[in-house]
Write a structure and sequence with these properties.
There is one protein chain. This protein is of the alpha/beta class. It has 16 helices and 24 strands. It has helices at residues 18-29, 104-107, 149-162, 188-199, 234-237, 246-250, 269-272, 283-289, 300-312, 319-327, 346-354, 370-375, 408-420, 470-477, 558-570, 583-589; strands at 4-5, 70-75, 82-87, 92-94, 109-117, 176-178, 201-203, 254-256, 263-265, 293-294, 333-334, 380-385, 388-392, 406-407, 424-426, 432-434, 442-446, 467-468, 483-488, 495-499, 508-512, 523-530, 535-543, 597-602. The strands form 7 sheets. Strands 1-4-24-23-22-5-6-9 form an 8-stranded mixed β-sheet. Strands 12-13-17-19-21-20 form a 6-stranded mixed β-sheet, covered by helices on one side. Strands 2-3 form a two-stranded antiparallel ribbon. Strand 5 (109-117), helix 3 and strand 6 (176-178) form a beta-alpha-beta unit. It is globular and about 70 Å long.
């Protein structure tokens, strides 16, 4: 690709369409300058390196371990493969939007440093409303490791806390932005777990019976991995191990240290909708999720019918699912009812973020204020650093679909907000507009959905408002020369896309980051610098959780569970046999140019 420098051979990218990759990831989302020294993975201990001058290109110590240093790699043979520490990934300089000037490493100054986490999918795996039985039609519709989502996310918090300085600037991360799908099933108990995870405290990842697990993994059905039992289920047949005590360990309390730096929250479709794609606030679904009956399997015809409407999005009221629940009621199993599983409303989601019990390192509300409660609005601005503005937008539907969009009201708000902070911008007809009173801040936009997953599908919950797709958002952002990047998640892949414009200063980058629930379980450490040659650079360094790579079946401590969480995700059906090259794994981890990069952009 023109404008890309790399020190390693680039493998062919087999799936080139972002929209196609989003469809692949949706199956998972339904029921995450190499230094010569290699530290021990997951310890947060960095090798000694020279301190940078003026935030230059050399490393500043201590900085914590990133994928520049080492990455998780599968090792061995067989149906189940352990992880080991592999070589780090290189820095790739991307100059499609602006040329990389010589000597910029010695001129540049740091403007901002922060962390993006996305698609944590903190999960109540025993929820009656979960649709694990869709696995009969698609192996990726259920995850063998998701009972460990809390332990895995705590390990990520620990690693973020170890990132004392960015690898390219030495500047300490100022905040964390979580770009949506913070929870999985749209339930209040999951939201409380997520808020405790981020702010610090004790989490017991168990619902229903307080003394035992009541989910699919001890159901006796070979459709699911039974870690504790000798049952020859379909996952054991492909190599997953037996781990006695796994389920008891999975529901034990876990303590999160909480983030030591402020954090912000952006909503995703799983935060707004049950399962990320079902009708919100539906009384039938609301009663079912807190009730005492749960379906573990349904006929293949019901699996096919439900998958069809999930793919088309033509069932905003979840009529097909409710009929499946009614028709198969006699086959549902008895579980312990739990009112804590009640569905989240937009108001309760906002109110929970504003609860002082979850203030953590701040800020109060984590981006939301009391004013948001009146309109249940979930978009806002916040200061990233001096001269750098963050804008968090809400791209979710509220009517039963996993795709995203912006309503006209929010799109106009975004336009007004950008104009208020731009000394020079362009109207819809391309005419320049000057605003001498503006602070002309560099702008970073955050959302859950990436541009290919945003459509103009009408929102049944807001029928009076026209919806706008990703192309329209790109066109709007291209009008403002001070927009540097749009950062998002949802796809569960790493993908970085340039959005050029004939006027170079109106170009910007879209940075799409993989989830922390699915392979490869990444977050990003981002550093914005001024090169003092008419360009800015945005460094996008991928980060893994703190737990050791190799899973130990005899270690069921919180750290051991976090290691298993990662290792099991790398052994997902269809992934382990293809690693380390080719196929869906490369689509999700991205090419080298989608991982650790320096993204150059013209300064307005």
């Amino acid at each position: 690709m023109a404008g890309i420098e790399t020190t390693t051979h680039r493998r062919s990218f087999l799936l080139s369409s972002g929209a196609a990759l989003a469809g692949t990831a949706a199956a998972f989302a339904l029921p995450s300058q190499r230094h010569s020294a290699t530290p021990r993975p997951g310890t947060g201990q960095a090798p000694a390196v020279a301190r940078a001058s003026r935030g230059g290109g050399r490393r500043a110590a201590p900085y914590g371990v990133t994928t520049l240093d080492t990455t998780a790699r599968l090792t061995g043979r067989g149906g189940y493969r352990h992880l080991t520490a592999g070589p780090g990934w290189p820095l790739v300089v991307r100059g499609e939007l602006a040329a990389a000037g010589g000597g910029r490493q010695d001129r540049r100054t740091a403007l901002a440093c922060f962390v993006q986490v996305t698609d944590l999918h903190v999960c109540d795996v025993q929820s009656p409303l979960r649709t694990e039985y869709l696995r009969a039609g698609s192996a990726g519709s259920w995850r063998a490791h998701e009972a460990l989502s809390v332990a895995g996310a705590v390990s990520l918090v620990e690693q973020v806390n170890a990132l004392r300085g960015g690898p390219h600037t030495g500047r300490a991360p100022a905040f964390v932005m979580s770009t949506g799908d913070n929870i999985d099933n749209h339930s209040m108990v999951e939201l409380e777990w997520f808020l405790t995870l981020m702010s610090g405290g004790r989490i017991t990842p168990n619902t229903g019976d307080p003394t035992s697990y009541e989910g699919v993994q001890n159901s006796g059905l070979p459709l699911y991995w039974h870690p504790d039992a000798p049952l020859r289920d379909q996952d054991k047949k492909r190599g997953l191990p037996r781990i006695p005590g796994f389920l008891d360990a999975a529901i034990r309390p876990v303590t999160s240290p909480g983030l030591r730096i402020p954090w912000y929250s952006t909503p995703g479709n799983h935060d707004d909708l049950p399962g990320g794609c079902l009708a919100p606030n539906d009384p039938v679904l609301g009663d079912y999720i807190v009730g005492a009956r749960k379906l573990f399997s349904v006929p293949d015809a019901d699996v096919a019918a439900f998958n069809q409407v999930l793919n088309t999005g033509d069932d905003p009221k979840s009529t097909v699912l409710k009929e499946i629940l009614r028709r198969n009621a006699a086959g549902a199993r008895t579980v312990t009812a739990d009112e804590r599983r009640r569905l989240v409303t937009p108001h309760s989601y906002l109110r929970a973020h504003l609860d002082p019990a979850f203030a953590g390192a701040g800020p109060a509300g984590h981006g939301y204020t009391e004013n948001h409660l009146d309109s249940e609005r979930m978009y806002y601005t916040f200061p990233i650093a001096d001269g750098v503005l963050g804008i968090s937008i809400d791209t979710t539907y509220r009517s039963g679909h996993f795709e995203g969009s912006l309503g006209t009201e929010q799109l106009r708000w975004l336009e007004r907000t950008l104009a208020a902070h731009s000394a020079l911008y362009y109207d819809a007809d391309g005419r320049p507009v000057r605003n001498p009173a503006a602070d002309d801040a560099h702008v970073l936009v955050f959302s859950h959905h990436h541009s290919p997953s945003m459509t103009r599908r009408p929102d049944a919950a807001r029928t009076d408002e026209v919806r706008h797709d990703g192309a329209e958002v790109i066109a709007l952002l291209n009008r403002f020369p001070n927009v540097v990047a749009w950062l998002n998640g949802h796809s569960h892949i790493n993908r970085i896309t340039p959005h050029p414009h004939p006027t170079p200063a109106r170009s910007f980058w879209e940075v799409n980051t993989a989830s922390h629930v699915d392979y490869p379980q990444h977050a990003r450490l981002l550093e914005l610098v001024d090169n003092h040659d008419g360009t800015l650079s945005l460094f996008t360094t991928l980060v893994e959780a703190a737990a050791p790579y190799r899973g130990d079946f005899d270690d069921l401590s919180s750290v051991g569970l976090a290691s298993l969480y990662r290792e099991l995700s790398y052994n997902t059906p269809g992934l382990a046999t293809g690693l380390p090259s080719g196929g869906i794994h490369e689509a999700m981890a991205g090419r080298p140019a989608d991982r650790n990069t320096e993204l150059l952009v013209r300064r307005a």
